[in-house]
Specification:
This protein is an all-alpha fold. The protein folds into 2 domains: about 325 residues, no CATH class; about 45 residues, no CATH class. The protein has a two-stranded antiparallel sheet. Helix 1 packs across helix 2 and helix 8 runs antiparallel to helix 11. About 45% of the residues are buried. The mean pLDDT is about 90.
């Protein structure tokens, strides 16, 4: 069956964008590596406790923030050649916002940060009663709910080290999700207030789509961030996912999103080339948070939001392992896995890094294929 000329032309253009993106990333990758080494933006063994595991000791001193290769390449090509006020400005803007948050965290953790401690709730309660200045006592009393939120949020993650605390990351991620929800609900039209339910069609859920979008953007960004722990794992899995999103957006008739997805694939090809063990650089929070947010947005725009657990399968599995580990720790008083996220569990069971990454890629590809089948059913 012959494809319509317009659809065939879009496919050719998407392939061209992928090639250009890959070549452009290859062209400036050596400059990025040199920059990261020169300014010592490398993994700090004092901050990262996982570097004490087996062969991971060799990862100390490897540059982080390699995700800049993808984020900046995609942003530049999109702004120059695929800029549409309706479809591409918010995905790129939210990606850059999330990447900036991750980059700031990378720099604090590995370069200039100092360890920060939060006051405990009993300490604040005591200060409310005993502090000499009544204005300070009033301040502690008024901000007590914020202190409680800060302390409770620490349960959602590991020790923050020198970087951003969990509550600070959550606020910025909520902002990224809120911008996405505002754009989709207010600017794209009533069609995007409908949610695609597999095998059942589209259902208009009205304003309920806003918290749903915020939730998925935050979850996906954090899921990709958690999975970025082995050389090649996040880059290869993201490449598989964005290939699938390119196909769906092409078939469903979203030209700008098709070209954006293809551009991401091209840049990820180059990134993964440099990130395969032994990695020349690692993605860092700047890449994982930025690309995780973009993955969520591009899936939501083509109305396949409920299929994100399949398109981001291995990321959500890694996120789920962390949630299970935390639940076991606080509810049962014991660990469920030897270490979370899941790739560290298999590492401690004796799997090599290469074996873990390749098997995770295969499982992820199978889930993405299932997602494709459901999305096109």
């Amino acid at each position: 069956m012959m494809l319509p000329p317009e659809q065939l032309a879009l496919l050719r253009t998407a392939i061209f964008y992928g090639l250009i993106s890959s070549l452009a990333a290859f062209a400036w990758a050596p400059l990025l590596i040199k920059f990261l080494y020169r300014f010592r933006i490398v993994r700090d063994k004092e901050y990262d406790a996982t570097l004490a595991l087996g062969e991971r000791k060799n990862k100390a001193g490897v540059p982080v923030m390699g995700g800049l290769l993808v984020v900046l390449t995609v942003a530049a090509i999109t702004m120059l050649f695929n800029w549409e006020r309706r479809f591409t400005w918010v995905p790129i803007g939210v990606m850059l916002l999330s990447a900036a948050l991750g980059g700031f965290d990378d720099i604090l953790n590995n370069v200039i940060g100092r360890e920060r401690r939060l006051r405990t709730i009993p300490h604040v309660l005591r200060l409310i009663w005993v502090h000499r200045e009544w204005r300070q006592r009033l301040w502690y009393a008024v901000t007590l709910p914020w202190t409680i939120f800060q302390r409770l949020s620490l349960r959602l993650g590991s020790h923050p080290g020198k970087g951003l605390h969990v509550h600070e990351r959550l606020i910025f991620q909520f902002l990224a999700g809120a911008i996405t929800a505002w754009w989709i609900y207010s600017k794209l039209g009533a069609q995007w207030r409908e949610v695609y339910f597999p095998f059942d069609g589209y259902v208009n859920i009205g304003g309920w789509i806003i918290p749903l979008i915020i939730l998925f953007v935050m979850l996906t960004a954090n899921a990709v961030n958690i999975a970025d722990g082995m050389d090649g794992l996040a880059g290869g899995a993201l490449m598989i996912t964005f290939c699938a999103l390119t196909l769906i957006s092409w078939l469903d008739g979203y030209p700008a999103i098709t070209l954006l997805n293809a551009t991401v694939v091209g840049a990820l090809i180059t990134y993964t080339y440099f990130n395969i063990k032994p990695a020349r650089f690692q993605m860092g929070d700047v890449g994982s948070l930025g690309l995780g947010a973009l993955l969520a947005i591009n899936t939501i725009v083509i109305n396949r939001m409920l299929l994100l657990p399949l398109f981001g399968f291995i990321f959500f599995v890694e996120l789920g392992s962390v949630i299970i580990q935390l639940s076991g720790r606080y509810l049962l008083g014991r660990r469920i896995f030897r270490m979370a996220p899941l790739h560290h569990h298999f590492e401690l069971r004796g799997w090599s890094e290469e074996k873990t990454v390749m098997r995770f890629w295969i499982l992820h590809a199978a889930a993405v294929l299932l997602g494709l089948w459901v999305a096109l059913y």
